[in-house]
Amino acid sequence: MRALQTVLTQKGYIDPAALDVLIDTYQTRIGPRNGARVIARAWAEPAFFDWLLRDASAAIASMGYTGRQGEHMVAVPNTGQVHNMVVCTLCSCYPWPVLGLPPVWYKSAPYRSRVVRDPRGVLADFGVSLPAGQEIRVWDSTAEVRYLVVPQRPADTDHLDVEQLSALVTRDSMIGAGLPKSAATVP
Prior knowledge:
two-stranded parallel ribbon
């Protein structure tokens, strides 16, 4: 990547300062931290959780997370009966304002095709094992709608504040390819 950046800079195709601003934007202002804050607030505030499920676009926008690729959001909650996963089978539609840049595996053809026909196998590849009776629903993001998985709140977290809760939320748990961290990981 650095070699490509060097060549493109030398040829005058990119401005390194502009590239640094773009990278900083996605690392500090747009990214999984935003989604983690949304999820933590939903875990801590039942009224916000209900709003998120009713109108995810408005609830998320109320926290200042808006922009292209996040205009039409739908939140799908994981429960003891249902585990949700997100994919874009056609390309890589992804909610950038709340999750940042999509991981490479999300955009890969093997993930996009296999998660539809073998979601348990994909979860196993990510180290996630669900109870045999738990249904897995796969949601296909499109150019019109993006999905955000609301993972189940980990046990023994009632004493944690929103900031501590947000540290438990992982990008993969908001895609459904992972689970949130346990309460034991909070210092």
